[in-house]
Amino acid sequence: MEMNSTIRAIIADDESRGRDTLAELIRKHCPALEVQAQTDSADSTLSAIRRLQPDVVFLDILMPGGSGFKVVETVAERSFDVIFVTAYEHYALRAIKAAAVDYLLKPILVEDLLAAIDRLTGNRKRDGAALPSLPSSGEALALRTSRRLSLPTAQGYRFIDISDLMRCLGRSNYTEFHLLGGTRILVSRTLAEFERSLVGHNFMRVHKAHLVNLHYVREYHKGRGGIIIMADGAEVEISTRRRDLFLQRIHTM
């Protein structure tokens, strides 16, 4: 990717409502991204890619003229990242095999979009691209490159090693941190505020209320979404929309 302070994006979806909804989410929550174009078919998407040379394409899977997978396969030398966006869960593994950055299910959740953008910026950093300055999600957040996390307390801050953190549980406007040894810390901040700092450290949001360190997953029990057993014996529910991605990530560790 060429050096640029802005991440240039194309939204490809044959439904105008889907394009507009995603564009609005990006406008509100992802100021580092600039939507250059919206397209509604495989052909118009390929044309826009060749003309605009984007950094990322938010790509629907089922579109007129060919699937999103066909778009990816048609581009001989891909210089952009892909985030698939679809209403169909069963394409997740194929999307991962296509080297997609992420796979977003409709209706798109803000926390899923933010996690995808974090993975995208992580890819760009490894590729040597210049990254824009992202706004802080709060003074309690550590930098993604840090191995420590600062948690606000009534007295000031408590600093923890991220490697000691097994899981986070969201409780409305609070987040409960579960550390090795059974230590629990309750912080008056939402789970979403901490997620952006932790996804780069092998954490994954497996449920709207659960952010887990994949290193401490010990078992997976089948079910509609499934249940995972953590190193401390805790049972954590997985949502159906995140199950396939969780299984793929845990099998490739």
CATH topology of the largest domain: Rossmann fold
Low-confidence blocks of residues: 130-145
**Quick one: overall form?**
globular
Distance between the termini: 27 Å
- Determine the structural class based on helices, strands and strand pairing: alpha/beta
Helix content: 25-40%
Largest sheet: 5 strands, parallel
Hey, roughly how much beta strand do the residues contain?
25-35%
**Assigned CATH superfamily of the largest domain:** Response regulator
Question: What is the number of helical segments per DSSP (H or I, 4+ residues)?
Answer: 7
Kindly provide the radius of gyration, computed on alpha-carbon positions and rounded to a whole number of angstroms: 19 Å
Total domains: 2
Kindly report the average pLDDT value.
Answer: 84
Number of strands: 15
Q: In the CATH hierarchy, what is the architecture of the largest domain at level 2?
A: 3-Layer(aba) Sandwich
Give, in order, the helices and strands.
EHEHEHEHEHEEEEEHEEEEEH
In oligomeric terms, what are we looking at? single chain
CATH class placement of the largest domain: Alpha Beta
How are the strands of the biggest sheet laid out side by side? 2-1-3-4-5
Give a quick summary of the entry.
With 253 residues, this protein is of the alpha/beta class. It is 28% helix and 30% strand.
How would you characterize the overall build of this protein?
- With 253 residues, the protein is α/β, with parallel strands linked by helices.
- It has two domains: 7-126, Response regulator (Rossmann fold, 3-Layer(aba) Sandwich); 148-251, LytTr DNA-binding domain (OB fold (Dihydrolipoamide Acetyltransferase, E2P)), CATH 2.40.50.1020.
- It is 28% helix and 30% strand.
- It has helices at 16-29, 42-52, 68-74, 92-97, 110-126, 191-198, 243-251, and strands at residues 7-12, 33-39, 56-60, 81-86, 102-105, 148-152, 157-161, 165-171, 174-179, 184-187, 203-207, 210-213, 217-221, 227-230, 235-237.
- It has a five-stranded parallel sheet, with helices on both faces. It has a five-stranded antiparallel sheet with strand order 10-9-8-12-11, covered by helices on one side. Strands 13-14-15 form a three-stranded antiparallel sheet, with no helix packed on it.
- A hairpin with a 5-residue loop joins strand 13 and strand 14.
- Helix 2 (42-52) packs across helix 3.
- Residues 130-145 have low confidence and may be disordered.
